[in-house]
Structure to design on (224 residues):
């Protein structure tokens, strides 16, 4: 158990809908990262927050957005969902916002868009 | 752009048969190279961080090494519970994200 929690574990929804994925980092970790894992793309970085502020962005679609709250939990919002958005979404956390620190991953949310 | 290539894609081993996994990388200024283990449907589990060429780290039957262009994960006398996908990732010195390879899926038969 990494100490990172994610809810829900599974999510099934229809195209065009909007969903929210939630992540709580390990105790004491200030950085939260979101990754998408699909069969054809592997693990891809989406976005990072550090202590409530956006720190870095990857290939995140404009339909996707995220935020980190004062209690440090984070939410990833996915809207206008398409079949291709079906994937595992992982949250990871690290102690610091600077490079070089290992990231600890949560159990993931499996999103299925039908 | 950072590139990480892992080989082989899949590895089938007999219990006790030692082997090595390769991770070749291209990155502009390596800040760290990370190894993770991932079981099906689960989140990646952190194994090691390597920071500079020549560095080695060990944990039970696993040993990771680093050169300027690649890293190896050696599995010594593996057991069936070592079956998993092993992921390699790099982080550039001026970047926050991890760039992952596609992974090597290891199957250890009893």
């Amino acid at each position: 158990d990494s100490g990172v929690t994610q809810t829900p574990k599974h999510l099934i929804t229809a195209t065009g809908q909007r969903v929210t994925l939630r992540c709580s980092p390990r105790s004491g970790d200030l950085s939260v990262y979101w990754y998408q894992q699909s069969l054809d793309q592997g693990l891809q970085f989406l976005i990072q927050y550090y202590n409530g502020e956006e720190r870095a962005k990857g290939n995140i679609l404009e339909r996707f957005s995220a935020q980190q709250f004062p209690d440090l939990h984070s939410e990833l919002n996915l809207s206008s969902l398409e079949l291709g958005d079906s994937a595992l979404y992982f949250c990871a956390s690290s102690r610091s916002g600077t490079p070089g620190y290992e990231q600890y991953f949560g159990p993931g949310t499996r999103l299925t868009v039908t | 752009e950072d590139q990480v290539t892992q080989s082989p894609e899949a590895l089938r081993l007999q219990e006790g048969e030692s082997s090595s996994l390769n991770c070749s990388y291209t990155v502009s200024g390596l800040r760290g190279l990370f190894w993770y283990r991932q079981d099906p449907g689960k989140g990646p589990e952190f194994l090691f961080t390597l920071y500079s060429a020549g560095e080695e780290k060990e944990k039970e039957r696993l040993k990771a090494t680093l050169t300027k262009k690649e890293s190896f994960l050696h599995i010594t006398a593996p057991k069936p519970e070592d079956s998993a996908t092993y992921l390699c990732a790099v982080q550039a010195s001026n970047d926050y994200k991890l760039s992952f390879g596609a992974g090597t899926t290891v199957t250890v038969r009893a």
